[in-house]
Amino acid sequence: MAGFVRELERRGGRPALRLEQRAAGGVGCVVWDAALVLAKFLETGACPLARRRVLELGAGTGAVGIMAATLGANVTVTDLEELQELLLVNIENNRHLVTGSVRAKVLKWGEDVAEFQPPPDYILMADCIYYEESLEPLLKTLKDLTGPDTCVLCCYEQRTMGKNPEIERKYFELLQMDFELEKIPLDKHDEEYRSEDIHIVTIHRKQTGPCETADQNRVV
Q1: Share of the chain above pLDDT 90, in %
Q2: pLDDT tens-digit series, residues 178-220
Q3: For residue 64, which of 82, 84, 90, 85 has the smallest C-alpha distance?
Q4: Are 60 and 88 in contact (CB under 8 A)?
């Protein structure tokens, strides 16, 4: 299938990531702006990634997870079966830049996550909240994957068309039943790769049981 390459520059003059995209094949086949914003945020060093276990949900082209792997993380990028070929192409195209490790695996939201245990240190998500029917499976997967110390980084573009505002509202309403959320200020994003309508939120599991602690309000 015909493709086209998107280069994602890296700091300090280091070689750019080369991310193949597909002219056809659905939303997972292109590098969305939220993925660029989250990938470049990781480069700021706000989250220590070296030797950390990282899992990306809805990875698409793998841009965010591969960037994490160039920063020393041990990464599993996940998406549906039909995206695996594209993920593998991009992993191979950028393997020489990886200082941690990276692999691709199939993960359908809502299904068993036993092979991804123990819980990772970080879960990465970019633009995963645009289908209403996927919200509950996604939330189930987040609950099944996260441990008390897992930090979820969720980046999304705020959209005003159609049902998007209602879907976003419902997602965050459901999410806050089990998780604590905190928005990362825009001035903490990459200086160039930032936008007023693209947000990054850190998400942690709420403490359970009678002995809730201040760790509920933990910030990355």
Answers
A1: 80
A2: 999 999 999 999 999 999 999 999 999 998 654 444 344 444 3
A3: 90
A4: no
